[in-house]
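Hello again,

I reread your note about wanting to compare the complex against the isolated chains. To keep things tidy I'm splitting this into two emails, and this first one only covers the full assembly. Below are the input lines as submitted, including protein chains and any nucleic acid or small-molecule components. They are followed by the predicted structure of everything together. The single-chain runs will come separately.
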Amino acid sequence: MFDTLKTRIFQGKQYIKDIKNASISESFRGFPVLHSNMDTSSCEGICPTNALNLNPLSIDMGKCTFCGACAKVCKAVEFSNGYKLASTDREKLVVTAGTKYEDYIKSAVETKKEIVKIFGRSLKLRQVSAGGCNGCEMELNACSNVNFDMGRFGIDFVASPRHADGIVITGPITKNMAYALEDCYKSTPEPKIVVLCGACAVSGGIFQASAELNREFLDKYPVDLYIPGCPVHPLTFINAILSYINDKK
Amino acid sequence: MARWTKVKNNTKINLSDIPGMGIEELKKQIIEMKMRPVGFFGKDWGFGCVRLFVILADDANSDLYISSAIFGPNDKSYESITQDVPSFHIFEREFYEQFGIEPLNHPWLKPVRVNQDEYQFFEMEGEEVHQVAVGPIHAGVIEPGHFRFMCNGEKVYHLEIMLGYQNRGVEDMMLKNHSGQLAESICGDSAVAHCIAYSQAIEVLKGIQISNKSQLIRKIALEMERMAIHIGDMGAISGDIAYLMGAAVFGATRTLVINTMLDLSGSRFGRGLITVGGVNYDLSDEFIEKAIKTFDKVGKDVDRMVKTMLKNSTVMSRLEKTGIVSAEKAKDIGLVGMAAKASGVELDTRFDFPDKWIKELDIERVPFCGTGDVYSRFKLRYKEVKESICMIKKLFEKWKEYKEEPLVADGIGNNYIPDAMVISTVEGWRGEVVHIVMTDINRKISRYKIKDPSFNNWYGLALAVRNNGISDFPLCNKSFNLSYSGNDL
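Full-complex prediction:
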């Protein structure tokens, strides 16, 4: 008992107080900054997911794995440590030379009044891994640890889709998981949201050319929130959900 | 032994040096050699023929033995090796699935990754026997897989694990367009281990020699990955027995390690760090100073928490004698890595197939002598975390000697050595990660075979839960923490 108390005292407070403005390591590869009018010939064919388009210069964050291969060989691309990457609009994930991080975060997530009213104080999510490599899954688990402590905002992962207000999909959606995913979606009561988490879920990511995928689910049902990353950093995920279910004031 | 070619880990093998023999003879010799299978896979050999490659490991002498057999267009079956050497069971199932050549009298010939609709579950009959089906979507935030328990009341008689939900066709994709990013996504928790195995294989086939410095940085990253995941798993085991103090402390401690990785590589899991020809990011004196301080704190925190935790009798009663896999069974079914070590079978690629650094840095294997229960797997993690911290410090010191060397080797062309093969084995935190790559005469990659340690170890979990309460299943599962995506590819 005494030891337990001692350990508890040593442990102290671990949570990040202000999660919306939390600082992150300088070396984190987040929001890409593109410079036009520079020689980009060295980037040709270097992007493993075809996220980088050279003419005109743009990066599709929905495909980008943030591997940094392009920034390594070419000065026209830099990765800042901006971690608020999510958007409610798939088109907005395409970053062009003029896009500034400050402007992006202002307009990227557009929420609706009903969403804030229904889910603003409590959002329970069911996560479905449909071919995810365990990278995004580990980061989603980390969202609930003592550092990020997502539960304090009323956001939790639940075991049953029947208890959930929405589903979070990770992975490129394999053929073998397509049925289970749809089943899970149908089991979730209305109103519900669908969140795509990670490059694989948003676009197929590194697996977009695989013959073993079945992404029909995304044609059938609407998607509410796209969260880029490979894997998605917990700060990216939590901020994405928070800005979606709360009015930005 | 003229019918087997003796090779080393990470060296070029000429395809023409690999002997061939009839499958009957091959089977006979496999039984005689009494060695552990590392590879057992087919390759299309043209004109409807299939060539089966078998790679066996002689761990005591750091040797690999390779041989092969050719099946003609009309040879559609052979007597299974599993009947005599059980550790081949999953390899033969995979070979059957990929090439349609049936191992006759295989005791457990079921789908591995595809055709789940045809899967026939083992069933027991009796008034008091009932089935519990779980998955593919589990209660927690984890990957999908289907589990079926045959229970009598709370007691599990038998667990059957059906996987394949994660199948993304990685081996095929590797043939068409391989990249380090793809290798990192084979199994996201072993991103570093898989990317090292991939890079080493490609380097051998391109004839690239990487600098000492980048070798050291790779080793450091690999040990950091091991530490981070092990600490995370200790937290997860605590969580599963509702010892929340442990879950909280280990969770926070793990964050320190992965944030150090973030400082180094820009990703919490070391993605983007390793590249063919070397590494992308360098250490610095400031980084080392900071990292050593962090790891000292991590070591102390883990020490304190483990001591407190294991003094607690309710914790011990959940961990001890739960989910036992005996050493004999572990050897029989061919467990590798952590799961094997915890059962008292000392398999560790770092020491079985040592590189020059292990000798140069005086790193010695300390046997663990586990008893195969959850407690052993917990204690093994603790031991390995401590060892990794020591090893990383030594590697940091060594790095200072090679500071001036380049990060990435020069002259990485697109040309592969023709008609060659390489076996690249890396000890990830879970066990041996094996990448086997072959090239053809046109200098193109013609076969890419991946073996994650989970492939060997899933059956170990099925054995571990036998005769345990079904409520101990999550705990057993967490103590193995096997990869679904690494198995399904």
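For quick reference: Chain A touches chain B through 63 residues (CB under 8 Å).

B.
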